[in-house]
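DM from R.C. (forwarded with permission)

"hey, sorry to bug you on a friday — could you get me a structure for this? deadline for the figure draft is monday and I only need the backbone to look sensible"
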Amino acid sequence: MNNYLRIGFLISETKKLPEWETEMIIAVKGIPGIRIAALICVEPKRDYKKGLGLRAFQKFENLWFRSTSDASRKISIDTRFGEIPVIEAANRDTLRGLDLDIIYCTDGVQRINEFENLARYGVWYITFGSGQYTAAVPPGYWEVMHDCAEIASCLQVKRPDTPAITIYEGSTTTVPYSVKNTYSHIAWKSASYLPLRLNEFLKTGASSFFSREKYKEPDSAPSKYTTPGTLTAIGLFIRNTFRYLRYKITFLSRHKKFTILYSEQAFRFEEFDLNRFIPLTLPGPGGSVRRQKNFFRADPFLIVKDQKAYIFFEEFHESINKGHISVVMLSKKGQHSEPIKILDRPYHISYPFIFQYQDDYYMIPETSANKTVELYKCRSFPHEWDFVENLMTGIVLIDPTLLYYNKRWWLFGTRPEPSFTSTNDQLFLYSSETILSPRWDPHPQNPVVTNISNCRPAGCIFSRNGKFYRPAQNNASKQYGYAIKINEIEVLSETEYKEKEVFEILPDSKNLCALHTLNFTDDLIVIDGIV
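My reply, with the result:
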């Protein structure tokens, strides 16, 4: 094997690529230890047939939904990859001479099985859709027309003499009623899969990379959802337009905001009752409880000290588009103190993750607006906090959540990859031997999870009967912060991470329509929700 990975990309004879794959190749080119040996021209994939109804719908979308991040926009390879050799696929002797490790098949060409014998680790490619929508055409069309909240994609590998396997899969939100923008959402998210997995390949080696039990064979059954006929497309177009208008009217009429709720009960999976939660009635700006239309509270965290319960949370002012951290003390009789602002910065801060270490209290609020992960230490509990240091800089890390396990600190948080995509669907993991360190090692499997319904942190990681559980937001809904899922952490090491969903908290009480943070003590639970 070479000292570096040699990769060839199968591209269309038109020598044009969609922008999302263009940026993906640029990211791969920048990885140390990888060399792009050639762009290999093959016959373009035959386009699906478009009836009158589908063509009319696509023209309407191009006029109505304009976007500067259109993933399907075609880019000439001459403008981006002039230095990379371009060869014809028919020249097999030249291809063999490239001594390729991996061939990646871009979306614009038909996968050709014979190419898998020309690379040590086979042909890699991305497919859109999952389950009944696997490889449905057009990509994203049926998910939008069926009002699905999420859309998925997979990175798959076909090696010689072995079945195809899915080496990574993820999901993100559909854009309400727009196929064009939904496709861009999942395509841009998929653009991160290959560079991130190649980084993992380089760190772990081929044997470890391909030995994972989690790998599975993709669904080989053809999707029943193919290009719609003219009458079907026109009917779906009309229905989709009315649903879009109704959605816009409903969205503009929403006034409900997140608020803090509490319940004096122990947290148990089998006995969780949202109807027992009571809103924490606190005054808004100007001192009035009612003046909270452009103001909300969220991200509650609990600390019990000297038999007193303190709730730390984010207070957000829409007028200045910025939040700060406040605290209230809650008695067992439901009485509470006035909220006191304890931490404010020129930039937005939220999610006050608080923990105790060596008899001191520390806080890691979310400071992604400043592209930092900041550590604060309490000087006088609970109101006075001092900045200690930046654990990370130059990074957008959403809702950073700590866990101390096996003599290491583990830091979880979501990141948008690429930077302009959703912040809710890719979970990254870092670790360090000491909390007071500016160096945090990225996990080789990053992102360890890509799943819009079960990814973004939703509170402290807790233990039960020797097992650790990670709360996560379920954002697979048109409502951000719709529900909470609890995941059991099955494997956590410097080389591997694995979790499984064990419980879900749905907003099924008569007054609650969303919730997205959960924390608790032995006999008190706090959540935030929309009531």
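R.C.: lifesaver. DSSP finds nine helices and 30 strands in the chain.
me: no worries. The longest strand covers residues 295-305.
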